[in-house]
Specification:
Layout lengths: L2 H25 L6 H17 L1 E2 L4 H5 L1 E6 L16 E2 L2 E7 L10 E4 L4 H11 L5 E4 L11 E6 L2 E7 H6 L3 E2 L1 H6 L2 E3 L1
Parallel strand pairs: 2-4, 2-5, 5-6, 6-7, 8-10
Antiparallel strand pairs: 1-9, 3-4, 7-8
Length: about 180
């Protein structure tokens, strides 16, 4: 095995280990502990971005990955803690969306799945490489890509692989293995 391939294999193993550690740590978080649960969900969001590959284009050219939220205070403010973090040599920028302001997003964290929000989301992400994530029940059935949920007090997630592929995104096989359910 050549040195570059070996280094890549080591990096993948480390990334998978970090994601697994976050998932195991998340398992201990309880629903009653909302700030801790919000921190865990924010860590999951960061790891989802790390295990997603976007097609070559604006994301890689700008060296920034824009994480938009449909609420001004998502996950009890913990999503803001991702500002400036690195994902695949890209710096995370967290943006709040308003009805009047629709910045270009690479990832959208959806805080509510009412009809108006879902209709706006569908028109924006149609056939565009935008990863959609939510912690709202039923998000996958509404066309979302990753739904974070609590199962027996533990943080888990489901993936809608069809929606991700339709958007041109590639989700890591390691991420798919960690999902509780994958819609194909």
């Amino acid at each position: 095995m050549s040195l570059p391939h070996f280094c890549l294999a080591v990096l993948r193993a480390l990334a998978l280990g970090a994601f697994t550690a976050a998932a195991l740590a998340a398992g201990g978080a309880r629903a009653a502990d909302s700030l801790e649960q919000a921190r865990v969900k924010a860590a999951f969001v960061l790891n989802f971005m790390k295990f997603t590959a976007w097609p070559t284009g604006p994301v890689t050219a700008s060296k920034t990955i824009v994480l938009c939220a449909t609420d001004s205070h998502p996950l009890a403010g913990q999503l803001h803690e991702l500002e400036g973090r690195e994902v695949r040599d890209l710096q995370v920028r967290v943006v709040h969306r308003t009805a009047d302001d629709s910045p270009p997003c690479d990832v959208i964290f959806v805080t509510r799945i009412d009809d108006a929000t879902l209709n706006a989301l569908r028109s924006e992400v149609a056939a565009r490489p935008i990863l959609t994530i939510s912690d709202q029940t039923g998000f996958l059935e509404q066309g979302g890509m990753i739904e974070i949920k609590l199962v027996d007090g533990r943080t888990r997630f489901d993936i809608n692989l069809l929606a991700a592929r339709a958007a041109g995104l590639t989700l890591s096989s390691q991420l798919l293995q960690l999902a509780e359910r994958v819609v194909k």
